[in-house]
Amino acid sequence: MATSKKDIRALTKEQLRNFFVEQGDKAFRGNQVYEWLWQKSAHSFEDMTNISKETREMLENNFVINHIQVDQMQRSSDGTIKNAVRLHDDLIVESVLIPTPTRTTACVSSQVGCSLDCKFCATARLKRMRNLNPDEIYDQVVAIDNESRLYHNRPLSNIVFMGMGEPLMNYNNVIKAIDKITSPEGLGMSPKRIVVSTSGVPKMIKKMADDEVKFKLAVSLHSAIDEVRTSIMPFNATFPLASLREALQYWYAKTKNRITYEYVVWKGINDKRKDADALVEFCKFAPSKVNIIEYNPIDDGEFQQAQSSAIDMYVNVLEKNHITVTVRRSRGKDIDAACGQLANKS
Ligand code: SF4
Predict the structure, then answer these.
(1) What is the pTM (predicted TM-score) of this model?
(2) Taxonomically, which superkingdom (predicted)?
């Protein structure tokens, strides 16, 4: 339930230590509470068993812990799990656990809904309500880590920011969440196991390069021809391919990190040889990898998965040009958990 008390997890460790000093207590108490909040993911002050009852009551009077609640968990026949996550203001986002034989990946949301309007995406049909706070992003990861341990007997190994929302439109909170996820005081995960996937916001890609982030970058490209890309991702009219490419060149010059492109091939939209040639041309400036992702129709509309011969054509053209390519089958289709399907339908 919404409340006017401050969310204690909006405080830094230093602010928490100062708070206790102001209360006439020891700064060290701040460290203890911080550990409960992040490392132990306490849902309530009651859980903090090494903190005195009086201190817990004092915290209760001053703060709330706006922990997410997993409202509904659906398990697919292929082991994929989709969580409908309720936020403190009753809005819902979704996150997904994707298991393979060698890894367990969390696909997390960064916004409630999305302000971009990609024509093939179910999330685009939801109005953007607000950005997620760092703790709300962090909690999704913790929930999936717990489910991974419970249902797959291993901890979470990878994270992709590919759920609801455009992560670079909520940059500061995504960065704060990743700081917590990678910190030894949080989950202690390697940033190399985290991928931030963007539809391509040039200014923010340059900022990531300037900030020397350690996680990986993926770009949902889907077409390297402006006219086609604008028809399926209308914001491309504002940020055309030339500006995206310029930002990616800047990124590569600074980070020397290979760029991954996410790419769906749709029947009659981008399934011709000229589309594959344009992709090769676009990728040339830096070491690149293309993930061709199987599409999951969100209705009977214009977006349908291309013939397998079109996928083969792409693979041939890319490989001939020495560009690494993988074809990724989609997971969790029976529970609408696959790429582009997250739309709070559960
Ligand atoms: S594909 Fe990503 S950026 Fe585009 S509308 Fe969907 S959630 Fe937003």
Answers:
(1) 0.91
(2) Bacteria
Quote the DSSP letter at residue 306: P
3-state secondary structure 101-162: CCCEEEECCCEECCCCCCCCCCHHHCCCCEECCHHHHHHHHHHHHHHHHHHHCCCCCEEEEC
Which residues approach ligand 1 with their CB closer than 6 A? 114, 116, 118, 121, 123-124, 164-166, 199
- Which residues are CB-contacts of 242 (< 8 A; sequence separation ≥ 6)? none
Establish how many alpha carbons lie within 13 A of residue 280's alpha carbon, considering only the half-sphere containing its beta carbon.
Answer: 16
Please, which pLDDT band fits residue 346 given cuts at 50, 70 and 90? very low
Vertex 232 angle, CA 226 and 237, to 5°: 45
Does residue 92 surpass a pLDDT of 70? yes
Partners of residue 130 on adjacent β-strands: 112
* Ligand 1 centroid to residue 166 C-alpha, Å: 6
Quick: pLDDT tens for 134-177.
Answer: 999 999 999 999 999 999 999 999 999 999 999 999 999 999 99
How does pLDDT run across 238-274, given as a tens digit for each residue? 999 999 999 999 999 999 989 999 999 999 999 999 9
Cα(305)–Cα(124) distance, integer angstroms: 19
- CA–CA gap between residue 295 and residue 246 (Å, rounded): 28
Write phi, then psi, for 224 (nearest 5 degrees).
-110, 20
- State the distance from the centre of ligand 1 to the C-alpha of 263, rounded, in angstroms: 13
Residues identified as active-site: 94, 339
Q: Considering Cα of 251, then 255, then 259, then 260, what sign does the dihedral take?
A: negative
Instruction: Please choose from 93, 118, 128, 219 the residue to mutate so as to test ligand 1's pocket, defined by most ligand atoms within 8 A of CB.
Output: 118
Three-state SS at 286: coil
Question: Given pLDDT bands bounded at 50, 70 and 90, which one contains residue 340?
Answer: low
Summarised one tens digit per residue, pLDDT across range 193-235 is 999 999 999 999 999 999 999 999 999 999 999 999 999 999 9
What's the DSSP call for residue 9?
G
